[in-house]
Amino acid sequence: MRGTRMNIERKKNKSAGKTLPLNSDEDLIKIREYCRSLAVQMEFSTDNCTMISTALYEICRNVIDHAGKGTVTIKVVGSKKPCLFITVKDQGPGIKDVQKALEEGFSSRGGLGIGLPGAKRFMDMFEIRTARDEGTTIRMCKYLDKD
Ligand SMILES: Nc1ncnc2c1ncn2[C@@H]1O[C@H](COP(=O)(O)OP(=O)(O)OP(=O)(O)O)[C@@H](O)[C@H]1O
Ligand SMILES: [Mg+2]
């Protein structure tokens, strides 16, 4: 009984990928390194490895800058057509106007306003879910076969 439960948990963990806390700049650097090494292991091109880790960095940067803290889940999905799938979650103030936030040059804090639109451009799938005072979840992925 115990063995069965443990096996199920192991399987669950495998498909769930790795979830890492994002509470500081240090965490951000560790997460970027982990993501880059996974992308290299998957044999993405050097350019794509850079695009993936830059997108991840910008989205994580936003969590630290605009929400304070969050979590990042990174996993490899699919075997025939694998992709690197990243979910970044926070429980901050939410993004007030998503359309505006995705415009290049929009920043609510006097930044350059290029993080969010840049990350979207670098990935194959990019989805934002956000609610005022509940937080923001960004899901994004990059397919290997587009290399
Ligand atoms: N996780 C988040 N929580 C709340 N607001 C966010 C979050 N991520 C982005 N935003 C909002 O979207 C805007 C645009 O984000 P974007 O990353 O493009 O620019 P920025 O962070 O202001 O500046 P930078 O160019 O330095 O990244 C932010 O100014 C902020 O208002
Ligand atoms: Mg930003």
From TrEMBL:
UniProt-listed Pfam families: HATPase_c_2 (PF13581)
A single MF term (Gene Ontology): protein serine/threonine kinase activity
Ranges for domain Histidine kinase/HSP90-like ATPase: 47-146
UniProt-listed SUPFAM superfamilies: ATPase domain of HSP90 chaperone/DNA topoisomerase II/histidine kinase (SSF55874)
Name by which UniProt lists this protein: Serine/threonine-protein kinase RsbT
Highest taxon of the lineage: Bacteria
Entry keyword annotation includes rRNA processing: no
Record organism: Fodinibius sediminis
Presence of keyword Transferase: yes
Coiled-coil segments on the chain, per record: none
Keywords, sorted A to Z: Kinase, Serine/threonine-protein kinase, Transferase
